[in-house]
Design a protein that fits this description.
The chain is mainly alpha-helical and about 300 residues long. The chain has helices spanning about 5-20, 40-50, 55-70, 80-85, 95-105, 110-115, 125-150, 160-190, 200-210, 215-220, 225-255, 260-285, and strands at about 25-30, 50-55. The longest helix is centred in the middle third of the chain and has 31 residues, at about 160-190.
Length: about 300
């Protein structure tokens, strides 16, 4: 009966006999990543044999590639494809709520793009924030006008539906054109001053869209017909929303020249203030109460008739 050692080395002895008969035969070596070959050509393989090595590390690379795809990387495609735009809305409720929370509670030293977007900007949140703000601004403005005229019997309230159109044009133009200008300016400064950083256009639109969320509850509270309270609310909203923009864009412009960095941030803040004050003044303008018209009574002109007595 053959011993275990005889069975163990039997096939290797047969391989040596075959290689001694044909020294030019090719051999197959299997090797893992970072390991030596598992099989060799023996004594004759080094003289003229050709080693064919199978590297198992390709499977590991394939696994890494699949893990990257599962990790949430956006597909790359042409801008004319549906998948290209679908990737911009690839967020869940938890991510959107976290970004909304970050836009309402800005903290010093916390960049909104770095801490909340994390290289995954979206258009889902900014789009619905702008849509909600359009309707809340228009509806709240109509309610405010109705409440201010409710006690005046001389006026007749008419809904102003054109405010929805005006609010949509103003808010969406601001949410797209201003980020486009900021992104273009930062890109130009990157070419002029190498140390100046920058964000992508999608990241810029995203941070501007989320920064407008604070105006949704503010516009609802503007219904209260107390003018000092309205100005306090607009001041708080401007500070919170403007802080999100300043904390986001200051780190990328502070390496520029001092005058240019301050001018850039000041322009961003001023445009944001103009949007807030303009919406308040147009949609929630204070109308002075109109005194009821009193009927004017006019006395008919008195006709004095002089009777003269003629003597006959």
């Amino acid at each position: 009966m053959a011993s275990p050692n005889d069975l163990k080395f039997q096939e290797f002895e047969e391989a040596e006999e075959l290689l001694s008969a044909d020294p030019g035969a090719s051999t197959l070596s299997m090797m893992g990543s970072g390991t030596a070959p598992l099989g060799g050509g023996g004594g004759g393989g080094g003289r003229g044999g050709e080693d064919v090595k199978l590297d198992l590390s390709e499977d590991e690379e394939g696994l890494e590639e699949s893990s990257e795809l599962l990790g949430g990387q956006k597909p790359t495609g042409g801008f004319w494809t549906f998948e290209y735009y679908q990737s911009f809305f690839n967020v869940d409720t938890v991510q959107v709520l976290d970004r909304v929370k970050g836009s309402m509670m800005p903290l010093p030293g916390r960049n909104f793009i770095k801490h909340h977007l994390r290289s995954n900007p979206d258009l889902y949140g900014p789009f619905w924030i702008c849509v909600t703000l359009v309707f809340s601004m228009a509806i709240s403005g109509n309610l405010s006008t109705f409440l201010s005229q409710m006690g005046n019997p001389a006026t007749h309230y008419r809904p102003q539906f054109h405010r929805v159109t005006i609010a949509a044009v103003v808010i969406f133009l601001y949410a797209w054109l201003v980020p486009l200008g900021v992104w273009g300016f930062l890109t130009w400064r990157q070419g002029t001053e190498r140390q100046v950083g920058g964000y992508s256009f999608l990241e810029t639109v995203c941070v501007y869209g989320y920064s407008l969320f604070i105006y949704i509850p503010t516009s609802v509270l503007w219904i209260i017909p107390v003018e000092p309270l309205r100005w306090i609310l607009i001041l708080v909203a401007m500070v919170i929303s403007g802080s999100v923009l300043v904390l986001t864009f200051w780190p990328v412009v502070r390496d520029d020249t001092r005058a240019m960095a301050v001018a850039t941030v000041a322009t961003i803040v001023v445009l944001h203030l103009l949007l807030a004050i303009g919406c308040k003044m147009y949609f929630f303008q204070t109308t002075a109460p109109v005194a009821p018209m009193t009927a004017m009574t006019t006395d008919p002109p008195s006709i004095h008739t002089t009777l003269t007595t003629m003597s006959h």
